[in-house]
Amino acid sequence: MSATAGGGSTQTGPTTGPAARLGLKPGVVVQELGWDQDSDDDLRVAIEEAIDADMVDGDYGNVVDTVLLWWRREDGDLVDGLVDALTDLVGGGAIWLLTPRVGRPNAVDPADIAEAAPIAGLAQTTTASVSKDWAATRLVAPKHPA
User: Fold this and answer.
1) What is the C-alpha to C-alpha distance for residues 135 and 118, in angstroms, rounded to an integer?
2) 17-140: what CATH class?
3) Which of 26, 66, 139, 143 could bridge 95 with an S-S bond, Cβ 3.0-4.6 Å?
4) What is the spatial distance between Cα 47 and Cα 42, in angstroms, rounded to a whole number?
5) pTM for the full model?
6) In this predicted structure, what is the pLDDT of residue 144?
7) Which residues partner with 116 through β-bridges?
8) How many CA atoms lie within 13 A of 102 on its CB side?
9) CA geometry: angle at 46 spanning 45 and 52, to 5°?
10) 99: which strand partners?
11) Residue 18's pLDDT is what?
């Protein structure tokens, strides 16, 4: 396992870096919810570069492929936040839940995510390291057998 944390002038391309770990590529419509001043601007820029577009907000009014949900312990009930994030998500789309890393202010306990996801009708599939302060958890609607 190798780390390439901070440093150098190496440009991160669309096939590497945090946006690639989130599976984001040009043409994907990403809705950003829960942005605040503590959100990671470098990550936001990397995502917009990867999708070759601006992220849309909660007023978008159309379906989106992915929801990027910034969530902090102080933001309230996680189940409610996840249910609200499903509003514009296309079938088969994913919610990337971004939470402060363990040990950071307002970190969300991973057990809280594991508990909230199924109540909101979601399954936790993947976690990804996306920045020094934020962790990402991928949540999707479980596939039901036909």
Assistant:
1) 19
2) alpha beta
3) 139
4) 9
5) 0.86
6) 58
7) none
8) 6
9) 85
10) 135
11) 86
Listing DSSP states for 53-82 in one string gives SPPB-TT--S-EEEEEEE--GGG--HHHHH
The single-letter DSSP state of residue 128 is: E
User: How is residue 22 annotated by DSSP?
Assistant: T
> SS3 sequence, 29-43?
CEEEECCCCCCCHHH
> Which regions of the chain are under pLDDT 70?
1-16, 143-146
At 17 the pLDDT is 83
Q: Quick one: tokens of 116?
A: 């909230």
- Give the integer Cα–Cα distance in Å for 80 and 56: 20
The per-residue pLDDT for 105 is: 92
pLDDT on residue 142? 75
Neighbour-count burial of 116, counting CB atoms closer than 10 A to its CB (0-12 exposed, 13-18 middle, 19+ buried):
buried
CB 136 within 8 A of CB 130: yes
CA angle 96, 46, 30 (to 5 degrees): 40
**Cα separations in angstroms, 60 against 3, 4, 55, 78, 110:** 37, 35, 10, 22, 30
pLDDT the model gives residue 22: 92
Q: Please report, for the chain, how many H helices and E strands are present, in that order.
A: 4, 5
Q: What angle do CA 128, 129, 135 make, to 5 degrees?
A: 85
